[in-house]
Design brief:
Layout lengths: L1 E3 L6 H11 L2 E3 L11 E3 L1 H20 L4 E4 L8 H6 L1 H4 L1 E6 L6 E3 L19 E4 L3 E3 L9 E3 L5 H5 L2 H8 L5 E10 L14 E11 L4 H18 L7 E5 L11 E9 L2 E12 L1 H10 L5 E3 L4 E3 L2 E8 H12 E6 L2 E6 L10 E5 L4 H14 L5 E3 L5 H11 L3 E5 L1 H6 L1 E6 L5 E5 L3 H9 L12 E2 L8
Helix pairs in contact: 2-9
The structure holds adenosine-5'-triphosphate.
Adenosine-5'-triphosphate binds next to β11, β14, β17 and α9.
């Protein structure tokens, strides 16, 4: 019997699992690491790719009213003047006079340095954009910035998209890409880093429809997380107060997730009005008007922006999937990833290293990997191999034994229930396909049989 162990998902457990199993490593580790930069390892890169693909599928592929974009990271510096980032994208900062560490003054609980207790300087504003130079000369004229958000690349391509796709309002442009912020206070693993990825939508609408579309996107985005397995009770919507609202926003809600350190922003959804197009039209001197054929009017569309972080989503999916169960006095660590997100969909495990079962298992492995990320593992006992797959969230294991040589069947074992079914090898692919799409494990292909075992072999 499986009993629920009392668990607390603390960040240390997640960080250690990610490190141990190759999801996420500290950047530049052999040189002592680079503060708040992270490298996604073999499993992390698959998880992150699956999250991005699920997002792209939901917001671009399956919709008529969305198109994609991939703008460059380096952009004309005037973009940041128009967007307000050069002036407004700054945090108030104090420096410790003894240890010289810098702190965000709005986050300090008392007036001394939290690290050494030393005296702090007056607060000053610190721009969060990374500056660099374009071309061979390092002077003021060649200053460019690493983009602090992907959104601006969309605004400045609005006319290009209208002209080339002939999209009519309402429609949106989606983009996934790196963004960089020289954050003062980092930490909480990949929650806040200096280099991260965003998945942003800018949805262009007629101004009078802003309330309707704003509510639509709030619901749509919240549901996306729930459909991919995040527990609804671990998500909440939080409205920004007037004081908190960014300079460009008329209204904003955060989708917060209950991370190990408490409720924190996962995604922001803002009604940006016509702020961005007004600004870019004014600073560039180019008209960004939209001509509405129905009303024969020229106007600047309003924009609803759902802006999500890939890394924060990755962390939320990891935390929500993490589980520990007590199994016969031993702890089974598992990640209940939704099959769409699981880095490895199927593991093929031969029960013996003898030539005949290995040949069959290798054939299955070669066949299945045409379709999915599949792993092959023949090291140690079957119980240990199952545990290794549970810990990285592999939804299904396929085992091949001596009986498989006679009856040409293999066993599919499910991660969450540990139930098993026996299926003809010729039907493995279609059966797994159906299971990965959510069909119950007990719907069997012809010739298949249920093989529920109380205890797994160790
Ligand atoms: P915060 O208040 O936490 O600093 P923000 O409100 O500045 O976040 P936005 O500018 O709204 O964030 O960016 C949209 C999304 O990009 C955020 O919801 C988050 O998922 C992600 N994001 C922003 N900054 C970072 C960061 N430093 N590291 C990782 N993800 C980030």
């Amino acid at each position: 019997m499986t009993e629920q162990a009392p668990i607390k998902v603390d960040m240390e457990k997640i960080v250690s699992l990610c490190r141990r199993r190759g999801f996420i490593f500290p950047s530049s580790e052999i040189y002592g690491g680079l503060s708040s930069c992270w490298d996604y390892g073999p499993l992390g890169v698959e998880l992150k790719r699956n999250i991005k693909e699920a997002w792209w599928r939901a917001v671009v592929q399956e919709r008529d009213d969305m198109v994609g974009l991939d703008a460059s990271i380096l952009m004309h510096p005037q973009i940041w003047e128009a967007s307000g980032h050069l002036k407004g994208f700054a945090d108030p900062l104090v420096e410790c006079k003894s240890c010289h560490l810098r702190w965000r003054s709005d986050e300090l609980e008392n007036s001394n340095c939290p690290s050494c207790g030393g005296e702090l300087t007056e607060s000053r504003l610190f721009n969060l954009m990374f500056k660099t130079f374009i071309g061979p000369v390092e002077d003021e004229a060649s200053v460019v910035y690493l983009r602090p958000e992907t959104a601006q690349g969309i605004f400045v391509n609005f006319q290009n998209v209208v002209n080339t796709t002939r999209k009519r309002l309402p429609f949106g442009i989606a983009q996934i890409g790196k963004a960089f912020r020289n954050e003062i206070t980092t930490g909480n693993f990949i929650f806040r880093s200096r280099e991260f990825e965003q998945m942003e939508i800018e949805f262009f609408i007629k101004p009078v429809t802003d309330k309707e579309w704003f509510n639509y996107w709030l619901e749509e985005r919240l549901n996306w997380y729930v459909k991919l397995g995040i527990k609804r009770e671990n998500l909440r919507l939080r409205q920004h107060t007037k004081e908190e609202l960014a300079h460009y926003a008329r209204e904003c809600y955060d989708i917060d997730y209950l991370f190990p350190m408490g409720w924190s922003e996962l995604e922001g959804i803002a009604n940006r009005g016509d702020f961005d197009l007004v600004q870019h039209a004014s600073v560039s001197g180019k008209s960004l008007d939209y001509f509405d054929e129905e009303s024969k009017e020229h106007f600047l569309p309003y924009i609803i922006e759902p802006s999500a972080g890939v890394d924060r989503s990755t962390l939320a999916f990891l935390c929500d999937a993490y589980d520990e169960e007590l199994e016969d006095g031993e702890t089974r660590v598992l990640l209940h990833f939704h099959p769409t997100l699981a880095p490895i969909k199927v593991a093929v495990l031969p029960l013996s290293r003898q030539e005949k079962p290995v040949t069959v298992a290798k054939q299955i492995y070669t066949d299945l990997r045409q379709q999915w990320m599949v792993s092959y593992d023949d090291a140690q006992s079957i119980g240990r191999r199952y545990r290794r797959q549970d810990e990285i969230g592999t939804p299904f294991c396929v085992t091949v034994d001596f009986q498989s040589l006679e009856d040409e069947q293999a066993t599919i074992r499910e991660r969450d229930t540990m139930n098993q079914i026996r299926v003809p090898i010729v039907d493995l692919k279609t059966t797994l396909q159906a299971k990965l799409e959510g069909e119950s494990l007990f719907i069997l292909p012809p010739g298949g049989s249920i093989w529920k075992v109380e205890r797994e072999e160790r």
